[in-house]
Amino acid sequence: MKDLARRLLVSSQNPSEPHVPEVVIAIGKLRISLVRFAGTDGFVSLLRRALAMARAEMPSLQSVKVGPDGNLHGFAIDSSNAGTEEAIAITAQFLTLLGCFIGEPLTRSILREAWPEITLDELHS
To answer: How far apart are CA 53 and CA 47, in angstroms?
Structure first.
């Protein structure tokens, strides 16, 4: 799942907004699809749980918070790519939880909607 998370984050890079971390952009893409499916509260709950799980492996995420609208706050960015592993951890945990709760087929559908340019071969891994 970490490889898929890494690919989604790379695909979410936006050169016109270098001050916005890729994880914020990626989670924003997922929010658009998932809010229609599970509502804002469902999305926020899932993201908060994913963040809690990611903190267990990355204590440096203690300053990151999930806002009531599902936005990530407090995620530091650095030109040296510090934070990349933290971003991967949050995204991978989110994808893992999503797959557990709604199943692989629906997760694939949501990811295809958000990232049509990405192949999802590793989703089942």
So the answer is: 10
Q: Which residues contact 88 (CB under 8 A, 6 or more apart)?
A: 2, 5, 6, 9
Q: pLDDT digits over 48-102, tens only?
A: 999 999 999 999 999 999 999 898 998 765 544 546 889 999 999 999 999 999 9
pLDDT (0 to 100) of residue 55: 95
CB of 102 within 8 A of CB of 109? no
Domain layout of the chain by residue ranges: 2-124
**CA–CA separation, 1 vs 81, rounded Å?**
20
Give whole-number Cα distances, 68 to 25, 53, 57, in Å: 17, 19, 24
